[in-house]
Amino acid sequence: MLVHLHVKNLALIEEAEVDFEEGLNILTGETGAGKSILIGSVNLALGQKMPKGIIREGAVNALVELVFQVRPDTEEKLKELGIYPEDGQVIISRKITGSRSISKINGETCTASAIRKIAALLLDIHGQHEHQSLLYPEKQMEILDDYGQKEILPQKEKVKNLYQEYSQIKKELDSYQIDEEHRRREISFLEYEIQEILEAALKPKEDEELETAYRRLSNSKQITESLGIAYQLTGYEQEGGGQQVGRALQRLSQISGYDKGLEDLYSMLNDIDSLLNDFNREISSYLSEFVFSEEEFLQIETRLDLINHLKAKYGQTIPEILAYKEEKEKNLEKLVHFQEQKDALEKALSGKTAELKSACEELTKIRKNWAKELEKQIVLGLQDLNFLNVEFEICFQKKEQFTSQGTDQICFMISTNPGEPVRELSKVVSGGELSRIMLAIKTLMADKDDTETLIFDEIDTGISGRTAQKVAEKMSAIGRSRQVLCITHLPQIASQANAHYLIEKNVENMETSTSIRALSYTESVEELARMLGGVKITQAVLENAAEMKDLAQQQKNTRVK
Question: Is this structure's pTM higher than 0.85?
Fold first, then answer.
C-alpha cells in the first residue's frame, strides 16, 4: 500500500507530505484547492507524461516521492521485474528540471516505462473521466479478457501467434498476384542482372587490391624518381649518407677501446650503418622489380571501371553486390517455379486459416463462458450500488476478418428499468450511472488482480441521495480488504473514512499554495459539516455531521462483527 507521499514545488504545491493509512483514505476540500493536483503528482511519479509548466513558479525543480509497503506476494512479483524491496518497502521518485526528469526506484535510476510496469502491481488509479472509456468496445473487451485472464490469455496468445503466421503467408501469397506477361518480363530482367554479376566473377577484396595497384602504377614516375633520390642521399657513393656514416664509424673504431662509453657509441653507430645498408638494398630491390607496364595498367583500369559500374547499380561494396545477386536468384527461382510455389502457399494459407479459425472459435467459447460469470458479478455489484432492477448482458458479434485478438466484437448491454430491453451502455446510462458501473467493475477487477491500492478521483460524479449512501458503503467495503484513496465531494462517502485528509489552498504574501493535512475526529466532523451546509455552518449542521460519522462507524463495527 501507499504509506507516504512527498511533493515539492509542483504546480500550486510548495511542499506537502502525508502519511496514508490502511483502509479508506478520504481526501476532501473546496473546489480548486488542488485535490486533483495531488493525485496528478502520483501519476507523474509513476511515469505519466509531464505537462508544461508543472514546476512551481520561481522554483528550479520539482520532486515527487512515493513510499509503498508491499505484501510478500507482491514482493515476489517485483523481484521477477528486477526490483528488490528493502524491508518490504519500494520508494519511487521523480525529479523534474526544466524539460528533463529523472526517475528512481529505491535510489537507482530507471526509465519511465519500467516504472509503469511496476506501478501496475502497486495501484490502480481511476480518474475523473475514465468511466467514459466504458463506452468503447475495445475497453469492454479488455475488461472481459482481464477478468478471465487465467484461461483467456493463453488462448489469446495462441491466436496472436497463429495470426502472425497467417498474415505472413497471406502477404507472401499477395506478391504472387501478377499476370503472365509481367512474370516473363520480370524473369528476363532478373536473368540479365544475375548474368551481368556472374560474368564479372567478383572476388572478395578484389577492388581494394586493384585500387592499390592502380595508385602505384599511375604514380610510377614519381615513385621511381623519389626512390632514386632517396637511394643516392643514403648510399655509399658521391658523399651519400652511407659513406658519411662509414667514415664516422672508422673514426670511432680508433678510439672505442679507450672508454666503455665510447664502445657503446661505436655499437650504436654500427647498428645504424647496418640498418642504412639494409635500407639501400631494399630500395635497390624495389626499383629493380618495379616495372611500369602499359598493358597491366590498362587491364587494371578496365577491371576497376567494371567493378565501379556494378557498384553503381547493385551495391556500394563487393559483398553487397553478391548479396544482391543472391536475393535476385531467389526472386528468379520464385518466378520460374511460380505456379508450384503459389499452389504451395495457397495450400499453406488454407491450412493456417483453418487452424486460426479453430483457435478463434475456441477463444470465443472461453470468452462466452467467462462473460456469463462476469455478467452475474457485475449485476451483483450494481445492485450494491442502488441499481435495484438492473439487467446486464455481454453481447457477442463475429468480425468478418481475423485479427490478432480473434474474431470477437463485444458490447456491454444494460437495462436499468423493469420491462425495458437491454441496450448499449451509450444509449441508456447517464454520467452518474456510468461512474457507478465503472466502480462496480473496478471493485470486481481489484478482487481478481488483488491490487493493493485503489485510487478514485471523484468517482461520485453525478450521484446523490440514497445512491450516494450506497456508493459510500461500497467504498467502505472495499476498504476492508485493501487500501483505498478517494477524492470526493459527498459527505456520505467522506463519513466512511478510516483516515480523513483536508486539502486547502492558502494565500500568503501574494503567493498561492496548496497543502494537505490529516484531520482529527473533531476536524473531520467540521469538514463534513462544511460539505453538508455550505457557507454557514450551524449547530444543527454540526450535529448532523457528527451523527453521520458516528452512524458510519457503527455500521463498520457491525460489519466487522
Answer: no
